[in-house]
Structures are given as structure tokens and as C-alpha cells.
Amino acid sequence: MVPYVPLWRRIRQDILDRIDAGLLKPGDKLPTTRELADQYDTSGVTVRKAIEILIEAGVLEGRQGIGVFVVEGSSRRA
After folding, report:
1. Which of these, 43, 46, 61, 72, could form a disulfide with 26 (CB 3.0-4.6 Å)?
2. Coiled-coil regions in this chain (predicted)?
């Protein structure tokens, strides 16, 4: 049986995978919380949890009123 993985962890992993694959590059802006919530069919709270963890890990950078961006040198640090 495959262990349950919370959706916020799957979102976090998907963002990391996109960075590693070069689909998200340093300086790229992520979609809005609402757009990501729609994409993953979940709530903004779940998306924000994944994003906040990646910000704390230094993979993403939040800029108040502007958005969330991929940090230079981001990789599997989270």
C-alpha cells in the first residue's frame, strides 16, 4: 500500500521537480495562489503551506504585493 502524502507536500515536490527540470528558472514568477489552487484542485491554504515551506528553505522568495519568485541557485533544498 502506498503511504498517504498530504497534498501540500505533493505541491511542494511538484514545484521542486519543475525547478529541477528547468520548467521554472531563477527569477521566474509563480502563478498566483488562486491559480495554483485551481491547478491542484485545492484551497489557497494548502497552496500557501507548500509555498511558505519553500520560502523558508530559500527555494522561493515572496515579494509583498508582487508575487513569489524562484531564487537563484534553487534546487532540492526543501
Report:
1. 72
2. none
